[in-house]
Amino acid sequence: MSKIIEGLRYADSHEWVKLEGDIATVGITDYAQHALGNIVYVDMPEVGDEVVAGEDFGAVESVKAASDLISPVSGEVVEINEALEDAPELINEDAFENWIMKVKVSDTDVIDELLDAAAYAKICEE
Amino acid sequence: MHIKTISMKYYDKLIFELSRPGRKGYELPADNFGTDGMADIPADLKRTEPLDLPEVSELDVVRHYTNLSNKNFGVDTGFYPLGSCTMKYNPKINEEVAIMPEFSAVHPLQPAESAQGALELYYNLQQALSNIAGLAEFTLNPYAGAHGELTGLMVMKHYHRSRGDEKRTKVIVPNSAHGTNPASAMVAGFQVVEVKSKPNGSIDVEDLKPLLDDTVAGIMMTNPNTLGMFETEIVEIAKLVHDAGGLLYYDGANLNPLLGKVRPGDMGFDIMHINLHKTFSTPHGGGGPGSGPVGVAEHLVEFLPNPRVRKNEEGKFYVDFGKDSLGSVSTFLGNFGVMMKAYAYILTLGKENLKNVGPLATLNANYIKESLKDDYLLPIEGVCKHEMVFDGLKDKSTGVTTLNVAKRLLDYGFHAPTIYFPLLFHESMMIEPTETESLETLDEFIDVMHKVAKEAHETPDEVKNAPLTTLVRKLDETGAAKNPILTYKALKNA
Q1: pLDDT tens digit sequence for B274-297
Q2: Shortest CB distance from B482 goes to which of A35, A40, A64?
Q3: Which in A12, B138, B215, B441 has the greatest CB count within 10 A?
Q4: Domain extents for chain A?
Q5: Which of B420, B426, B481 is closest, CB to CB, to A40?
Q6: Could you report the per-residue pLDDT of B63-111, keeping only the tens digit for each?
Q7: Which residues in A have their CB inside 8 Å of a CB on B?
Q8: ipTM of this complex prediction, to 2 decimal places
Q9: Which of these, B26, B19, B12, lies nearest to B56 by C-alpha position?
Q10: Can you tell me whether residue B307 is helix, strand or coil?
Q11: CATH for A9-107?
């Protein structure tokens, strides 16, 4: 059973978001890292890049597959998790602790359109 | 006397490790010219350090490569059910034909009058493929499947451009497609638009309709689709795409089950490629070069790449360069040796036997599917074509994954099936037996698959640690992806 954390928001493409002020921290879920298997590379955006909700902002490569990362929010990337450059497997160890990017979001209301923990849990069960 | 036997299977040297300074297996004739061949080459183009080539004797070379070849697993050594790859038997007569000096010694620049036989073979093979596919003409020039896709998409582009229809920039690709499809479309300069597939892998016609407008150049499809199921709505899809002004591209990767039964041209496809190295029994997967002939319907013939082989009224063959052609995609006429093998395959089977290929491949696949569905999760019921996809073991409680099953099969002497593709399921296992396997081989494979399912319950750790009997045990795939050692130099420094 994959871990899902209460209080976070989720996209059906298996990214999680934590909004603090207008800064959104984005990562992939425990379910996603399980499905992918051993992660060997994370292709991250650069600080200053604009990301758009519903469009890809990078990719995760595992020994099984390469998968696009879909941004749940729109805005400017203000920080990326540089630790993942050398140690992408951190996501396998803890997908919620090891976020991928932080975004200064242009419209914080968008967050309400994302799934809550219960709704996301339902998707994972299907 | 005690004789210690060391299996040569355990040989693991690189040819560079055998190198000893000055050792060689040749002797060059004395220089009769007395000139310095290097004198005219500008100093800045000359190599400053010697080339790092292995220096070995003839016996070293023979033993080295013979030992390496003994470590190989191929269709000639065992069952190779690699889904989507059509690993059928490669008849040995193909090889005999391909090395005939009457063909292999022909120089590509030799005058056409002196190479009539080779040109006739090219011409006849393209005609045979046209008949098999229900299309007007083929070029045999592309070197492989993906190269054929690119060539076909270039034909698509030239067609729209010739009509002044420059706004068609999109190519529709099903989300279940082989990865080469979107990749080829990107390389050809198109924007890729995904169309959803239904649970059985078929294109969702309702999702397709709103995508079709005057910016769509065409759609790329396989039929049967990636899950091995026939696209029953292909006629409607073809009509929708054509009505919107687009073209239909057929990826020949899954042509085998249709051979002699259904023709892509009759289904409405305008362009297709064939993998001679799958459907027409020429070796592949490290076994030899590929060949990806591209066929087109009548209205696209003028755009095919140059050069082309034509026949004049007197029955003589000549090499032609069409003025509306998209240009050249290969040196000369492509991988000629592969064409010879495919031609030999078509002629040795003949029209009637060729018609049995598809039905027998389909029968074998369904036999395996029905025999394994009690232990392995079959997400899509119904009659499949040449291959089927299981979503791992039915009982997931043991923690044994598709990867573990695949590795365990190696212990039993079978090549693993394609795993973790298609991405539609988490534990995909794609099995394609082809028509060339006997009932006994299929039964043996089925027995072993059942056995592994049983082991997953009784001794799960053993399965998780498989392979247990192979020369190289479970590989560190993460390490290989993160810190690959790809050259001898890197190995020395590692």
Answers
A1: 999 999 999 987 656 899 999 999
A2: A40
A3: B138
A4: 9-107
A5: B481
A6: 999 988 888 888 999 999 999 899 999 999 999 999 999 999 999 899 9
A7: 35, 37-38, 40-41, 61, 63-65, 88-89
A8: 0.76
A9: B19
A10: coil
A11: 2.40.50.100
